[in-house]
């Protein structure tokens, strides 16, 4: 099976959130909607309160009579406005996208993904990248203005490629980073450099990380990955399983070609948290990597 396609959208790409972009700059509409709005509180670890499989949203009116400075307008759900705010402390049961993303419905997953991504950007955008002056949030959290020149900056997203390398038949190349426990493997990934196409990035990253030349690079799908503010762009590529693997840049400490049956067994066993003693454990469903492996292993 030299070519394959993903059969489902990645979990974090299934957002059903109405972003209501037309309201972001409408101060009067946002002020009026604040009375019945809900707020998602997110701490600096990207965690929010949960109850069972639900995010805990709180009445915005409890925070004041109008939108708070620094709050981010996320959109609408069931006609009500939704906002996110950064907080220093939370109580109760907490969860982040990596741990609870698979439990959330499409709307809640989109809500938390967007909140974490934009709040992470605000944390690092307090000074203008153009003139170094302090910046202030505008457009209900969707831009920041320089206090010196008025220059406007928008939430940054860093593109990264993630590629499933296979041999065109029944083997797939999976690798382990230096900080990962033994037996935990995934597909290869890396950030896109300035002036580089996505396809060129795939070829460069794989050559740098494992010393392998690949061909037949094909797009599979994409997924927001707000850790801290990326989008993962998925590809497949074909490589020679008889070619030597080299780990020159230090980002990979171990890589092996695994058979389709072995990948199927790992998928059936669960994810990286599995208690299986198999030599292969694979990522959980919140990552696009798992969807890529599931599509290839069919």
UniProtKB/TrEMBL annotation:
Residues 155-280 form the Nudix hydrolase domain. One of its GO terms (cellular component) is cytosol. The keyword Hydrolase applies. GO terms for molecular function: metal ion binding; NADH pyrophosphatase activity; RNA NAD-cap (NMN-forming) hydrolase activity. Keywords: Hydrolase, Magnesium, Manganese, Metal-binding, NAD. It catalyses: a 5'-end NAD(+)-phospho-ribonucleoside in mRNA + H2O = a 5'-end phospho-adenosine-phospho-ribonucleoside in mRNA + beta-nicotinamide D-ribonucleotide + 2 H(+). Its cofactor is Mg(2+); Zn(2+). The keyword Magnesium applies. Its EC number is 3.6.1.22. InterPro entries: NAD-cap_RNA_hydrolase_NudC (IPR050241), NADH_PPase-like_N (IPR015375), NudC-like_C (IPR049734), NUDIX_hydrolase-like_dom_sf (IPR015797), NUDIX_hydrolase_CS (IPR020084), NUDIX_hydrolase_dom (IPR000086). SUPFAM superfamilies: Nudix. GO terms for biological process: NAD+ catabolic process; NADP+ catabolic process. Belongs to the Nudix hydrolase family. NudC subfamily. This is NAD(+) diphosphatase. It comes from Rhodococcus spelaei. The gene is nudC.
């Amino acid at each position: 099976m030299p070519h394959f396609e993903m059969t489902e959208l990645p979990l974090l790409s299934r957002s059903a959130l109405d972003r209501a972009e037309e309201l972001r700059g409408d101060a009067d509409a946002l002020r009026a909607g604040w009375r019945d709005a809900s707020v998602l509180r997110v701490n600096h670890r990207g965690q929010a309160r949960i109850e069972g499989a639900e995010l805990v949203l709180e009445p915005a009116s409890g925070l004041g009579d109008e939108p708070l400075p620094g709050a981010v307008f996320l959109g609408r759900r069931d006609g009500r406005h939704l906002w996110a705010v950064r907080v220093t402390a939370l109580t109760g049961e907490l969860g982040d996208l990596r741990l609870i993303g698979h439990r959330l419905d499409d709307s809640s997953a989109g809500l938390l993904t967007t909140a974490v991504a934009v709040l992470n950007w605000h944390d690092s955008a307090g000074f203008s990248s153009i003139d170094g002056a302090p910046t202030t949030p505008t457009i209900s959290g969707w831009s920041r203005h320089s206090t010196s020149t008025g220059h406007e900056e928008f939430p940054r997203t860093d593109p990264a490629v993630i590629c499933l390398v296979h041999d065109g038949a029944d083997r797939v190349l999976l690798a382990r980073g230096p900080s990962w426990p033994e037996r935990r493997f995934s597909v290869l990934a890396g950030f896109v450099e300035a002036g580089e196409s996505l396809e060129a990035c795939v070829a460069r990253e794989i050559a740098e990380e494992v010393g392998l030349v690949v061909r037949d690079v094909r797009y599979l799908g994409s997924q927001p990955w707000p850790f801290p503010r990326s989008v993962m762009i998925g590809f497949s590529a074909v490589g020679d399983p008889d070619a030597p693997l080299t780990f020159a840049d230090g980002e990979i400490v171990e890589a092996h070609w695994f058979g389709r049956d072995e990948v199927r067994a790992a998928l059936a066993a669960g994810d990286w948290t599995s208690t299986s003693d198999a030599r292969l454990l694979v990522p959980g469903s919140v990552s696009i990597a798992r969807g890529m492996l599931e599509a290839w292993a069919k």
